[in-house]
């Protein structure tokens, strides 16, 4: 067996008198999506470990009576802040049962969030150190497009709704800058609280690490950010083995009585919200590529969970910046009409349409690092009049102008612009009404919190937009509680009824051959947060 530990040979025996390894090495690398692919074929082809799989590993390690400690090796860790925070919780649970040491060759904001669940943080002398807070960089293409003869009509409700502004404007406006800065301040506040709690220092000390200009592991040690400077071979002893080498020694969880009482269904809503079936856009474009949550697919999964007699509660996991206003409303309806309690758990994003679908859940759980809110509406289109003129293209019209109002060949007329604005104001009114009813707030208060403005999870909690901070495990616990289930009742991942893996996978392969730049079809009214916010 390849032990994947360079300091031990594959035929190394355990020390005398030791019958089982006393330490296990657990590797952490990659983005850690929340759940396994619901499509079995896609699951087989996926090489990315999920947070769900990691949680199962940690749970087995917690129950291994022969195990003394776990060394968590961080590799190319690329998880989003909300996911890193969920991993922090897993390691903290493990730390309560075992000694947990995190080995961090790269000390950065995200790896430290995850590693802060361990009792000890160790880095090599040569560690890369980048603990400088969070920042966002967004490229505005308005001037670039205009130089090429392309203008962009951008109608939005209201001033903080920044969707499509990167295409229509030359620079970031003051309202967008204000909300992004507030969001980053919320993230840094959460980071300070996490690291202060982990290292047992006051929050002002942890905040000082962001301005301390730390450049080496030794400096991080002297500041109290980590507990030791050491290389990996100094941490791994002869009784250490990688997780793969001890998997057979770890007992699977027993179903027990909890399974008979009922279970919780987990329905994923990941990616831009569209009408039709969920699919993946293979075009590697920002915002438009990757997974898309189809209302038909999500609604079918929710209905299957509602109809399943063994399911007593539902968790809707949302990692989406929204999208189609229509699709968001159709998914919302299934949540609002469920007789079984529905708990929404927010991932990295649950903004705009991603918040819309959550308004009538029995409880909403967000990470302190979640980007949520963006209660607003946008509509727009590119205008290629000058582009067509430059390139000798001449669109000719026959029939009613109103029928072709969304054509890119010309801008809206005043009458058409008024028509579109009327429509998006109606959607905004419906959106704010949903929030007011679901969150027991006045419409005036919702409008104060809305206007397209984003919030961090902590800020959303303070303003009544979510109910508590946590992750999927928190949401599952709340769902079990609402349904009167035991704390260890099982959870299952829901797929639409009667959809076998091979036909669905074949459909995805066929769709991958069709390149779609605009994923919303003919729909122009969007509850969408289109900024690709990647904190660094």
TrEMBL record:
The keyword Lyase does not apply. SUPFAM superfamilies: ClpP/crotonase. InterPro entries: ClpP/crotonase-like_dom_sf, Peptidase_S49, S49_SppA_67K_type_N, S49_SppA_C. Residues 93-236, 337-485 form the Peptidase S49 domain. Keywords: Hydrolase, Protease, Serine protease. Belongs to the peptidase S49 family. This is Peptidase. It comes from Deinococcus daejeonensis. The lineage of its organism: Bacteria, Thermotogati, Deinococcota, Deinococci, Deinococcales.
């Amino acid at each position: 067996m390849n032990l994947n530990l360079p300091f031990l040979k594959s035929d190394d025996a355990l020390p005398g008198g030791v019958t089982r390894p006393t330490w296990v090495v657990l590797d952490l690398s990659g983005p850690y999506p929340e759940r396994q692919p619901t499509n079995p074929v896609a699951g087989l082809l996926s090489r990315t470990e999920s947070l769900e799989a990691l949680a199962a590993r940690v749970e087995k390690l917690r129950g291994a009576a022969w195990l003394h400690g776990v060394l968590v090796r961080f590799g190319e860790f690329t998880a989003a802040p909300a996911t890193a925070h969920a991993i922090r919780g897993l390691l903290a649970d493990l730390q309560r049962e075992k000694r947990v040491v995190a080995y961090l060759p790269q000390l950065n904001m995200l790896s430290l969030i995850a590693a802060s669940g361990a009792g000890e943080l160790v880095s090599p002398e040569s560690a890369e150190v980048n603990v400088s807070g969070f920042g966002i960089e967004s490229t505005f293409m308005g001037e670039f497009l205009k130089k090429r003869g392309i203008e962009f009509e951008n109608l939005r409700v209201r001033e903080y709704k920044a969707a499509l502004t990167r295409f229509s404007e030359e620079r970031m406006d003051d309202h967008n800058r204000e909300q992004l800065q507030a969001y980053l301040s919320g993230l840094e506040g959460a980071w300070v609280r996490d690291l202060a709690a982990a290292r047992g220092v006051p929050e002002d000390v942890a905040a000082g690490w962001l301005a301390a200009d730390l450049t080496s592991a030794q400096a991080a040690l002297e500041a109290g950010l980590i507990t030791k400077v050491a290389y990996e071979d100094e941490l791994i002893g002869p009784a250490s083995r990688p997780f793969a080498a001890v998997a057979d020694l770890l007992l699977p969880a027993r179903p027990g009585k909890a399974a008979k009482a009922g279970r919780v269904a987990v329905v994923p809503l990941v990616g831009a919200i569209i009408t039709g079936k969920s699919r993946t856009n293979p075009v590697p474009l920002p915002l438009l590529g990757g997974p898309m949550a189809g209302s038909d697919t999500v609604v079918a999964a929710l209905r299957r969970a509602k109809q399943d007699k063994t399911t007593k509660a539902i968790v809707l996991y949302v990692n989406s910046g929204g999208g189609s206003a229509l699709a968001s409303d159709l998914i919302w309806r299934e949540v609002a009409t469920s007789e079984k309690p529905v708990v929404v758990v927010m991932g990295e994003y649950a903004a705009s349409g991603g918040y819309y679908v959550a308004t009538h859940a029995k409880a909403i759980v967000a990470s302190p690092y979640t980007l949520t809110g963006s209660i607003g509406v946008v509509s727009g289109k590119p205008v290629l009049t000058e582009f067509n003129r430059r390139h000798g293209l001449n669109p000719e019209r026959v029939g009613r102008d109103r029928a072709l109002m969304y054509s890119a060949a010309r801008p809206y007329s005043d009458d058409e612009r008024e028509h579109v604005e009327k429509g998006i104001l109606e959607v905004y009114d419906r959106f704010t009404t949903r929030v007011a009813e679901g969150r027991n707030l006045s419409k005036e208060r919702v409008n104060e919190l809305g206007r397209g403005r984003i919030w961090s999870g902590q800020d959303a909690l303070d303003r009544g937009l979510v109910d508590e901070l946590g992750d999927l495990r928190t949401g599952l616990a709340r769902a079990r509680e609402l349904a009167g289930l035991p704390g260890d009742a099982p959870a299952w991942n829901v797929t639409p009824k009667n959809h076998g893996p091979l036909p669905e996978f074949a459909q995805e392969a066929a769709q991958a051959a069709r390149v779609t730049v605009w994923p919303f079809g003919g729909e122009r009214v969007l509850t969408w947060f289109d900024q690709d916010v990647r904190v660094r």
